Amino acid sequence: MAIFLSLSPHLPPNPPQYPNPELKFPLPPTPKTVLIDTKTSKRDLITRVAPFLFISSLAFSCPTAQCLAEPLPTPKPLLSGIANTKSWFQFYGDGFSIRVPPQFEDVMEPEDFNSGLSLYGDKAKPKTFAARFASSDGSEVLSVVIRPTNQLKITFLEAKDVSDLGSLKQAAKIFVPGGSTIYSARTIKIKEEESFRTYYFYEFGRDEQHVAMVAAVNSGKAIIAGATAPQWKWDDDGVRLRSAAISLTVL
Asked: Tens of pLDDT along the chain (251 residues)?
């Protein structure tokens, strides 16, 4: 997801909403203010943002890796803020690891494994969370979902890299819900022992929620990490949420 060299904590302003249901790529104006009932339970908040979860700093998780990026659709500034996550707890799941922001709690529960909630549009309707963490008030959530790639895109060959699902722009139709406004998208290449592994990064907004997502593929399985929060909280917490999503590492 040399892109991560920009460590400025300032984030790009949120773009206006458009009536066209197609994905939007422009960057632009001010975020809306959203009020949340303080009486709302933590579980209710997590439930509200769950559909946006599923569906992921050079110093964060690949200190020796070479990261390359290419912007979409036209050259724009590099990611506006990445935090050093080396001191964060590192969660190891089935074929992946991810850094968890401080004070986030593990919120995996039996019913979460078959939530039936969709983050990525019609072609990807996840049923299983491979990992799920939330802030103390439940308004910010980090989750990981693993899906067979042949459920995301019909193919006779086993996908070995996310690029097998299409280009960064083509894959956005799989991973990003229709009607979303994309603020940023990047291709990240991480140097491994014998080759480079590709990660796709998307940051987008939809229905008052702001999402940072990273997707990768390994042996026919798509591993997708999503970090989400209300738009009004992104200015304060967007850097750490984006950093958590980008810390996704395929093992």
From this structure: 333 322 333 334 444 443 444 555 544 443 333 333 434 445 554 444 444 444 432 222 333 333 344 445 454 444 558 999 999 999 999 999 999 999 999 998 765 554 445 455 544 444 569 999 999 999 999 999 999 999 898 877 889 999 999 999 999 999 999 999 999 999 999 998 889 999 999 999 999 999 999 999 999 999 999 999 999 999 999 999 999 999 999 99
What is the secondary structure of 12-27 as a DSSP string? PPPPPP-SS-S-B---
Question: CA angle 22-167-3, nearest 5°?
Answer: 100
Pairing outcome for strands 105-106 and 131-134: antiparallel
- Alpha-carbon separation of residue 21 from 18, 121, 151, 167 (angstroms): 8, 12, 23, 21
Residue found by looking up tokens 């790529």 in the block: 25
What contacts 86, CB < 8 A, 6 or more positions away?
59, 60, 63
Gap between the Cα atoms of 243 and 60, Å rounded: 7
As a whole number of angstroms, the distance between CA 191 and CA 40 comes to: 44
Ordered structural domains, the chain, with CATH: 56-232 (3.40.1000.10)
- Helix, coil or strand: residue 238: helix
Check: CB of residue 230 under 8 Å from CB of residue 209: yes
Instruction: Give the containing element (helix H, strand E) for 221.
Output: strand 221-230
Angle at the Cα of 101 from the Cα atoms of 162 and 81, rounded to 5 degrees:
65
